[in-house]
Amino acid sequence: MTPEFAYFLKVNVAFVLFYAFYRLLFYKDTFFKLRRFSLLAFFGLALIYPLLNIQEWVKEQEPMTEVIQMYSAILPEITVTPEVVVETDWKSILLSASSYFYWGVVALLLVRFLVQLGSILLLAYHSRRTVIHGVPVYQLDKPAGPFSFFQMIFIHPENHSDKEIDEILTHECTHVFQWHSVDVMICELITVICWVNPFAWLLKREVRHNLEYLADNTVIQSGYDSRSYQYHLLGLAHHHQAAATLYNSFNVLHLKNRISMMNKKRSNGIGRTKYLIFIPLAAFLMLLSNIEAVARITGQIAADAVAEVKEATEISLVPAEAVKVKGQVIDDFNGPIIGANVLVKGSNVGTITDMDGNFVLETTKDAVLVFSFPGTKAKEVVVKDVLGDLKVQLYSDGTIQRPQSGTASSTPQRQSDEPQMVSDKIFTVVEVMPEFPGGQGELLKFLAKTIKYPVIAQENGIQGRVTASFIIEKDGSIRDIEVIRGVDPSLDMEAVRVLSAMPKWTPGKQRGQDVAVKYTVPVTFRLQGKTENQPTPGKDDIVVVGYGSDEADKVADSNQVFAMVEKMPLFPGGQDGLIAFLAKTIQYPKEAQEKGLQGRVVCSFIVEKDGSLSDTKVIRGIDPSLDQEALRVISVMPKWTPGTQRGKAVRVKYTVPLTFTLQ
Questions:
Q1: What is the mean pLDDT of residues 418-446?
Q2: DSSP letter, residue 234
Q3: When comparing pLDDT for 124 and 5, which is higher?
Q4: Consecutive H or E run containing 295
Q5: Residue 550 CB partners (closer than 8 Å, separation 6+)
Q6: Which of 191, 195, 404, 540 lies 20 to 30 angstroms, CA to CA, from 310?
Q7: How far apart are CA 413 and CA 644, in angstroms?
Q8: DSSP of 493-532, one letter per residue?
């Protein structure tokens, strides 16, 4: 169901409710002006309330493939819109025919509306303007019933006596002065669009009737004899059987209703209070329109809350009495400590905290974890005493000081209460942390682009994680770069070199003043193809990949599979060719459409030395139908240009996530 069709349905449902509401409460009273306002409000609210949804009204519909995204480690995100082969069925044919029929009738009614409008304007152009009893009118050349349109009154005076002309002019002037033609035009246009809804036509009829009641009531209140006026109406109806169109006719609407309303006793003034019921009716419509979105949001909030509770109390058990401990390391001011060491006491097993101070470590239940960070007091925690996520707070030991002060504390907790002393301290966490130009993402890009794997480290097979720290001064410059946890002098020096080349940062702030802040960055150096003692990078680590010299010389003569090489494999025609191929080849399985299945299928394959593809498999699937479609498309790909290492073709493993989305 498209949003436009949903809007159309809501509007027409409102017309049904409003007409029933009108007939039930307002139909028999004599508050004609209030009735006019209510009827116009019905039309306005019916058109507006569907637009006030919390979210777009998206319901289950005949599915089609909107987007299939493909990206990999070497390609930017690509959006592919494949052509979906949809079997022709009678349902779609019927829907198309209904659409054409609807718009055809709309066109005919619109033409009819324009013809009527043009005929009135043409009649005004050819009629002679005159003044009768002080009222400007258009004098008709041929006998016809009197009527008005906006500020124009049409009459054939030879057909009426002076008294009748006075009554007619009083009646038509009411239409003119109160701009009743605006109401008529609104009703006509709405019935053109909503012609399929009989209640729209019924509301239009009520509007026309009420306008005549208003004009008749004005004539009676002006002092004209009610009985004489009613006989006059009967006479006009007998001689001029006109049809109701765009104009306000004096005699065309049901005389029985008009005469009955003129003779009806005026409604009690207290009855006006019932029009206030329109307010809760409008509120009900708003709720009815938004209830689906409210339910959807409430369900999402509940799901998120359950997930948070589950995550907050989770300790994942692994085989052999091992546990996965996770948590956060914070400082004196409850801010995250970046790069804090988390080690298993008595071993070299451990990790460091990421950019949010979080860590995850697998160990045994009887282990003791040691938490440490330069400038703070170390802390030990017994794993078996841990329930849920662990939060460890490390307090400053006062050892980190600025050279010029000699006595300034290293953490905010020890700072002086005097504002002028804030800028003389070195902080690890401040109110506004320093920021690399362009943000955290740009910092990661800069490091990844600038760092080079030292050749000597590659030749000696050295790999590991280097944790470096530096101080960001009040002017954003970098100083005091040091390696907190090193691996090898060559890797340590490369990390220091890159950090020294960084541009000025936006300085951190404490109490509104620029201050010096200590910052920590972990960099993981990893050799391709070497699994022994290979470090596992954290989520915020910079990963630098290199190749050992012995292995690099043998790659062309072996069947080793690489994940990254100097020149990656390329689809024929490049990225554009791959997009065109996927758009032409991928088809959304009909079974998955019917079940409403969607999501991401992650596939991998090996690009062989000759460019052919092998070992195609699904790493993470959704449903067999979607998984099989992803495998099918990969299996029919043409040969690629193979990847090369040291100028020779090698086997390269390639991973492709494909996202299937239903509109």
A1: 72
A2: H
A3: 124
A4: helix 278-312
A5: none
A6: 540
A7: 55
A8: HHHHHHHHT--PPBPEEETTEEEEEEEEEEEEEEETT--T
Residue 110 pLDDT more than 60?
yes
pLDDT reported for residue 414? 38
**Among candidate residues 576, 573, 545, 543, the one with its CA nearest the CA of residue 645:** 545
How far is the C-alpha of 37 from the C-alpha of 306, rounded, in Å?
50
Three-class DSSP category at 1: coil
CA angle, residues 498, 501, 502, in degrees to nearest 5: 95
Is residue 68 within 8 A of residue 582, CB to CB? The reply is yes
- Cβ(179)–Cβ(193) below 8 Å: no
Q: How many residues does the chain have?
A: 663
Cα–Cα distance for residue pair 544/235, rounded to 1 Å: 99
Nearest-CA neighbor of 10 among 51, 60, 42?
51
CB atoms < 10 A from the CB of 500, how many?
11
Q: Which pairs from 40-43 meet CB under 8 Å and 24+ separation? A: 40/183, 40/186, 40/207, 41/278, 42/14, 42/15, 42/18, 42/203, 43/186, 43/187, 43/190, 43/203
- Indicate the helix (H) or strand (E) that contains 600: strand 599-607
Of 11-25, 384-398, 541-555, 574-588, least confident by mean pLDDT is: 541-555
Q: What are 55's two structure tokens?
A: 């979210």
Q: What pLDDT band is residue 106 in, cutting at 50, 70 and 90?
A: very high
Identify the residue whose tokens are 């940062």. Answer: 505
Q: Supply the DSSP symbol for 276.
A: G
| Residue whose token pair is 């124009």 | 152
Q: Enumerate residues 6+ apart whose C-beta is below 8 A from 11.
A: 46, 47, 50, 194
Amino acid at 457: A
Token pair for residue 616? 């195609």
Confidence of residue 109 (pLDDT cuts 50, 70, 90): very high
User: Are residues 505 and 476 in contact, defined by beta-carbon separation less than 8 angstroms?
Assistant: yes
Return all residues near 596 (Cβ < 8 A) that are at least 6 apart: 60, 63, 662
Contact in structure between 452 and 494 (CB atoms under 8 Å)? yes
Give the count of beta carbons closer than 10 Å to the beta carbon of residue 629.
Answer: 22
Question: Closest by alpha carbon to 26, among 276, 198, 265?
Answer: 276
pLDDT for 163 beyond 90: no
298, with CB counted inside 10 A (0-12, 13-18, 19+), is exposed
Q: Give the pLDDT mean for 182-187.
A: 90
Rounded to 5°, the CA angle 254-46-196 comes to: 60
Beta-carbon neighbour count of residue 379 at 10 Å? 15
In this structure, what is the dihedral angle of CA atoms 67, 68, 69, 70, given to the nearest 10 degrees?
A: -160
Beta strands 648-662 and 147-149: pairing type? Answer: unpaired
pLDDT 10s digits, 555-600: 455 677 877 667 888 889 887 888 788 878 888 888 888 888 888 8
Read off the tokens for 114.
């324009």
- Which sign, positive or negative, has the C-alpha torsion 217, 222, 228, 234? negative
Burial 114-126 (b: 16+ CB within 10 A, else e): eeebeebeebeee
Token reading at 252: 């065309």
Range with top average pLDDT, 228-242, 385-399, 500-514, 560-574: 500-514
